[in-house]
Amino acid sequence: MLHTVNKSPFEKNSLETCFAHAKEGSAILLIEDGVYAAIQGSVFSDKVKQAMSTCTVYALEGDLKARGVAGKVIDGIQLVDYAGFVDLACQHDKVTAWL
Amino acid sequence: MKFAIQVNEGPYTHQASDTAYQFTKAALEKGHEVFRVFFYHDGVNNGTRLTTPPQDDRNVINRWAALAEQYNLDLVICVAAAQRRGIADADESKRNGKDADNIHPRFRISGLGQLIEAGIQSDRLVVFGD
Questions:
Q1: Chain A residues with CB-CB distance to B under 8 A?
Q2: Fold of B2-128
Q3: What is the total count of domains within chain A?
Q4: For B6-31, what is each residue's pLDDT tens digit?
Q5: pLDDT digits (tens, 9 = 90+) for B91-121
Q6: Which of B32, B125, B129 sits opposite A86 (nearest CB)?
Q7: pLDDT tens across B27-79, in order?
Q8: Do B124 and A85 touch (CB under 8 A)?
Q9: Catalytic residue among B4, B27, B78, B103
Q10: What are the DSSP calls for chain A, one per residue?
Q11: What residue numbers bound the domain in which A10 lies?
Q12: Do A83 and B126 touch (CB under 8 A)?
């Protein structure tokens, strides 16, 4: 399953809820303010790294750039554009939005 | 692949409508089919033709309409959500005794069954909201 998260982890607990529900092997795509979770060295980055041991984490590159944090991403998070977002939606049988 | 898109958020509030548009455009450009875009909750505000953003800003409504024109997209606005927010076509306006309508001609008003049908008919339902 592909999970999309569009909230900053510093604003809402959408990402933590997603982590709590995502099964091993799931893909998690950070979009919009959700990309703040991708920043290396934040109080949240250890939780993201922990999730990366069982799930693949992606982030929308345009949203990272728009927020000026594209150069500060946790190693191992894969960056995608909208076409890549579409590909991820195709590769997984369901898409769930954690709003 | 066949996609259904659900938009729960209005234009110019959060990013949801922009993201939904960019996703839909990317899917169409990749050759996928978009069965329907369903505008629900505050998302119905994406369908008013009276929107007049500043000249240097994107026109979210016209942008959806242009994409619909190019790819013959079905843009559907939820009737109950629309009535609450004052979004009406000529028929709805008349039926409710209002003096005007404001829906963009590339959108249409219908019921929640259209969302259910889109979910059944499509391979993926992708939701954008806030």
A1: 4, 6, 31-33, 63, 81-83, 85-87, 89-90, 94-97, 99
A2: Hypothetical Protein Ychn; Chain: A, (3.40.1260)
A3: 1
A4: 999 999 999 999 999 999 999 999 99
A5: 999 999 999 999 999 999 999 999 999 999 9
A6: B32
A7: 999 999 999 999 999 999 999 999 999 999 999 999 999 999 999 999 999 99
A8: no
A9: B78
A10: -EEEE-S-TTT-SHHHHHHHHPPTT-EEEE-GGGGGGGBTTSTTHHHHHHHTTTSEEEEEHHHHHHTT-GGGBPTTPEEE-HHHHHHHHHHSS-EEEE-
A11: 2-98
A12: no
Cα separation, A28 vs A95, in Å, equals: 10
CATH code (residue A52): 3.40.1260.10
Q: For residue B8, list chain A residues with Cβ-Cβ distance below 8 A.
A: 99
Given an 8 Å threshold on Cβ–Cβ distance, is B8 in contact with A99? yes
Q: How far is B124 from chain A (nearest CA, A)?
A: 6
Beta bridge partners of A60: A80
Q: Note whether B26 contacts A82, CB cutoff 8 Å.
A: yes
Catalytic, B78? Answer yes
